[in-house]
Amino acid sequence: MEICTWTRPSRILHTMLRVSDLDRSIDFYCQILGMEEVRRESFSDSRFTLVFIGYQSEQEASVIELTYNWDEGSFVRGNQFGHIALEVDSFEEINELFSECGISYLREPGPMKSKNDAGDHPETIAFIEDPDGNILELIEKK
């Protein structure tokens, strides 16, 4: 196999999610999940706003780009998107927060039900939805 000599991409910059209510989404990701707004850009001529959020700066890590189209009432999500995975320190701690905020699990915290070819899959995982129905997988830190 011939190896390409051109410069390859070197890291993931961001994942874009369309949102129907920008403030509600920022509250969810920042107030509940602890991310911070990193950058915001508005484009009046094209009528959309981008808000970049994450746990670190864009120079340090990948972030999520929330895209709000001003005139778009709703949008149709395809079935190709799966989920975004986030690490949590402890489900015990986050369960209390979710309870206070009225967030319920799509799948309660527990071991991954499938085994990989090497045997057990020891991670504890759970799934929730953001305000627009995008799925987030939570994986407890080992």
Describe the structure.
A hairpin with an 8-residue loop joins strand 3 and strand 4 (63-69). It contains two helices and eight strands, in the order E-H-E-E-E-E-H-E-E-E. It has a four-stranded mixed β-sheet, covered by helices on one side. The protein has a four-stranded mixed β-sheet with strand order 5-8-7-6, with no helix packed on it. Helix content is 15%, strand content 35%.
Short description:
The chain is of the alpha/beta class. The protein has two helices and eight strands; from the N terminus they run βαββββαβββ. The strands form two sheets. It has a four-stranded mixed β-sheet, covered by helices on one side.
List the helices and strands and how they pair.
Elements (H helix, E strand, L loop, with lengths): L13 E5 L3 H11 L3 E8 L4 E7 L8 E7 L14 E5 L2 H11 L5 E5 L12 E6 L5 E6 L2
Parallel strand pairs: 1-4, 5-8
Antiparallel strand pairs: 2-3, 3-4, 6-7, 7-8
